[in-house]
Every structure is written in C-alpha cells, then in structure tokens.
Design a protein that fits this description.
Layout (H helix, E strand, L loop, with lengths): L1 E10 L3 E4 H5 L6 H8 L3 E4 L6 H15 L9 E5 L10 H9 L5 E5 L5 H15 L4 E9 L9 H4 L4 E11 L6 E9 L7 E4 L11 E4 L1 H22 L9 E4 L4 H11 L10 H4 L6 H11 L8 E8 L3 E8 L1
Parallel strand pairs: 4-5, 4-6, 11-12
Antiparallel strand pairs: 1-7, 2-3, 6-7, 8-13, 9-10, 12-13
The structure holds oxa(dethia)-CoA.
Length: 320
C-alpha cells in the first residue's frame, strides 16, 4: 500500500504586516529583516482568530477541491504547537466542524518539523490500521506566542495553515510517499523554546525564545545530514529529486542547504519572503502554492526537510 497526496491546500489570514510596518513600533528596519532572513512580509491572525480557525478553512478547501465527502475520512491528524487551548485538541474541533463523523482525531506537537512528523505518523497508521483516507492539517499561530517587543524573535514568524487529503493507493501507483525519517536531539532543547515567565506578567501563554545563531547552525547541519541519510537509505541521489521543499525559517539557511547539496536554488520552493516562518504549516503552504502556480507537477519527486524546537527534525521523499 502507498500513501498518496490526493489534494493539498493552504490558507493564510487576511491581515498582512510588512517589515516597514514592524519598524514603526520596533527598533528594526526592513533592510535588517530582509538581509538576515529573506522575509518581506507575513500574514497574522486578527483578534480572536485561533489556530483551528485557520486549519478549518484549509481543511474545508482541501476537501472541496476534490469534492470529497468528509464522512469518508478515517482520521484527522493536526500538527500544531500553538493550539487554541490545552484541550480539547484542534483536531477534535476540525473533525466536528467538517463533519468527519467516522474519523478519530488528535494533535501532534513537533514544532516546525510537525509536518514531517505527522506525515510519517499518517503513513504508518494508514498501513498498520488499514486506513483509506486521512486528513492532515498543519495550523499555526506563532504570532500569539511571541513577545511583540522582542525584535529578535517577533519579526521572524507568520501565521497560516495547510491541509492534505491522503489516500491509500495500491503498490502499483506511480505517486506515493517513498520514505520518511525522523530525529530528535533533546540535548539542544534550550536553544528554542516557549518560556512562560518571559512574557508580560499574568499572561500564561508563554513567549518564544531562541538562540538564533545556534539554531541557524544546527538547522543547516541537521537538515543536510537528514537529507543525505534519507537519499542514501532509499538508493537515491540528489539528481533524482525535482524539487526540495524545506521548512521556511530563513532564506540564508535554504541557500546554504542548496550549496551543500549542489542543488539549483531555483528548484527549491521558497516562500519565506511572503509567509515568514509559519512553523509546521510552512511546507504544505509552500507546496500548495508551487502546485497552484504550475511548478510542481504530478509524477515529480520532492524532498522535504524541516527542523524545529526540540531540536526535532527530519526529511521525507514523495513522488507527487
Ligand atoms: O523555525 C525553527 C528554526 N529556526 C531557525 O531556523 C532560525 C535560525 N536563526 C536565524 O534565522 C537567525 O539566527 C536570526 C534571523 C534569528 C538572527 O540572525 P543573526 O544573523 O544570527 O543575528 P544575531 O541574532 O546574531 O543578531 C545580530 C545583531 C544583534 O545586535 P548586536 O548584538 O550585534 O549589536 C541583535 O541585537 O542584530 C540585532 N538584531 C536586530 N537588529 C535589527 C536582532 N534582531 C534584530 C532586528 N532588527 N529585528
């Protein structure tokens, strides 16, 4: 059995904030943000808008695109580290609101690597539990978990959601997931976390802290190592890959990965400039935009890689 992407969609909140907008209230400039990260703007949620609201729109869109009856969904798996509430899960809300009556639903927290983690989990459950149709949703509102007076972190993030409808196909299918590979290096957890005492008093939500330089260094080292391993283990080389879709934290990290892998930058899907870092939603958002604009086509091989707080990281190869 092979896990195939039937349909993919993204959703971005309507409010757009540019670097120049941020420089009105922060000691920063468009030049600093753009030169260091490649980010030009980001979409942010409005008052009262939460992660599951974004995920729900992406989920509805992905089903409507292929006219899929929600009662045919076996499981709803949501990747989020910015859940609306500690419980119930975003997945439960989305399952209920789309009317996926037969599906079980749960959230996964693997920070910016959450898409790779949920893809691996979905594939594994589809095989072990013989599921036919899984709805995978990544929905993130990091803007609600940053300190908007801390220029070192708040300029980096955006909000958004991506959704995929995964189907079980038989082994003869040309399309399908080829492999996933997951890693964690918990000894580096101090470099990127949410510290509840770092925000304003009486606000229990917590705020993101990051040792940017350390995470930058490990992002390049670990993502390139995980890409090497997944290619080697599957008897492939970078020449077998049509597109790389990385987690979109920083354009300079992505340029370094291309250099290390000797891979043309124009064959890497980069949305950092428009979306900023939308955590686990960044890969599905990038993928859906590259399918929409005609770059990614059915039958092409895609290598995905991500790293996030934990440090958790991993890669996946799929033939779309
Ligand atoms: O998604 C999870 C994975 N996350 C990542 O992959 C992020 C990895 N890290 C990065 O992307 C980069 O390290 C950052 C973009 C976060 C920072 O870039 P950097 O080149 O590593 O800068 P830095 O943190 O070393 O800061 C350099 C200077 C500092 O000033 P001093 O100490 O040299 O005087 C900062 O205070 O830039 C200053 N700075 C800013 N200046 C203007 C930090 N943030 C800003 C800002 N505007 N927004």
């Amino acid at each position: 059995m092979k896990t195939v992407i039937n349909s993919i969609a993204g959703h971005l909140p309507t409010k757009i904030v540019t670097n120049d907008d941020l420089s009105q209230t922060l000691d920063t400039t468009h030049e600093w943000i753009f030169d260091r990260t490649g980010i030009e703007k980001r979409h942010l949620v409005s008052d009262g808008e939460l992660a599951s609201d974004l995920g729900l729109i992406a989920a509805r869109r992905v089903l409507e695109q292929v006219n899929f009856d929600p009662s045919g969904i076996d499981a709803v798996i949501v990747s989020t580290t910015t859940s609306d509430r500690r419980f119930p899960s975003c997945a439960a809300r989305i399952q209920g609101d789309i009317g996926a009556k037969r599906a079980f639903a749960f959230d996964v927290g693997a920070a910016c690597a959450g898409f790779i983690y949920t893809l691996a989990i979905a594939d594994s459950l589809m095989k072990s539990m013989r599921l036919q149709n899984v709805l995978l949703v990544c929905c993130e509102t990091l803007s609600l978990f940053v300190d908007w007076t801390d220029r070192a972190t708040c300029v980096l993030f955006g909000d958004g959601a991506g959704a995929l409808l995964l189907n079980a196909a038989d082994d003869s299918s040309e399309s399908g997931l080829i492999a996933t590979k997951l890693y964690t290096d918990g000894s580096k957890e101090k470099y990127n976390s949410i510290l509840s005492h770092s925000g304003p008093q009486n606000d229990h939500r917590g705020y993101t802290t990051m040792s940017g330089r350390s995470v930058f260094k490990y992002a390049i080292e670990y993502m390139s190592a995980s890409m090497n391993e997944i290619l080697d283990e599957n008897g492939m080389t970078i020449d077998d890959i049509d597109w790389i879709i990385p987690h979109q934290a920083n354009r300079r990290i992505l340029e370094s990965l291309c250099k290390i892998k000797n891979f043309p930058l124009e064959k890497m899907i980069i949305t950092t400039q428009n979306h900023a870092n939308t955590s686990s939603a960044s890969i599905p958002l990038a993928m859906s935009s590259a399918i929409r604009d005609g770059r990614i086509k059915r039958g092409q091989s895609i290598l995905m890689t991500a790293l996030g707080a934990g440090l958790v990281y991993g890669s996946a190869i799929i033939r779309y």
